[in-house]
Amino acid sequence: MPLWFIYAILGAVFASLVSIFTKLGVTNISPSLAGTIKAIIMAIFFIIISSFNGDFTKLSGITNYKKDLLFLVLTGIFGALSWLFMNFAFKHGSVTKVVPIDKMSIAITILLSALILKEHLSARTIIGVAFIVIGGIVIALH
């Protein structure tokens, strides 16, 4: 089994727990404060991991990678917006309705990968994307 597949499964498992715990965590806390708390915890977590990996010794040369930094800044902004809107969605909707719509990001990502990254989409991929979208709508509108 390829290593990327194991990592992807672990990521999916942890992402599912994020949805469940977010729903439980926004019961009495505002969605924006919930996002702030999650971001602080994640920042502390990654600081610890990067420290153990010795990543901070490489910070001096990081400005050589301006394009990478720009994309990471954009990732942070869009990730925060994603969390904020998902926190609001969980505050006002059930997990079983919110998550299928959120997971349509899979279909959007695949389409954007073709447009932006010029990745090839086979007929099978396009059919799969259609099933994801239809499935998400069917589940969310139950």
From TrEMBL:
<protein>
    <recommendedName>
        <fullName>EamA domain-containing protein</fullName>
    </recommendedName>
</protein>
<feature type="domain" description="EamA">
    <location>
        <begin position="3"/>
        <end position="139"/>
    </location>
</feature>
<dbReference type="GO" id="GO:0016020">
    <property type="term" value="C:membrane"/>
</dbReference>
<feature type="transmembrane region" description="Helical">
    <location>
        <begin position="6"/>
        <end position="26"/>
    </location>
</feature>
<keyword id="KW-0472">Membrane</keyword>
<feature type="transmembrane region" description="Helical">
    <location>
        <begin position="98"/>
        <end position="117"/>
    </location>
</feature>
<feature type="transmembrane region" description="Helical">
    <location>
        <begin position="69"/>
        <end position="86"/>
    </location>
</feature>
<dbReference type="InterPro" id="IPR000620">
    <property type="entry name" value="EamA_dom"/>
</dbReference>
<feature type="transmembrane region" description="Helical">
    <location>
        <begin position="123"/>
        <end position="141"/>
    </location>
</feature>
<keyword id="KW-1133">Transmembrane helix</keyword>
<dbReference type="Pfam" id="PF00892">
    <property type="entry name" value="EamA"/>
</dbReference>
<dbReference type="InterPro" id="IPR037185">
    <property type="entry name" value="EmrE-like"/>
</dbReference>
<feature type="transmembrane region" description="Helical">
    <location>
        <begin position="33"/>
        <end position="49"/>
    </location>
</feature>
<keyword id="KW-0812">Transmembrane</keyword>
<comment type="similarity">
    <text>Belongs to the EamA transporter family.</text>
</comment>
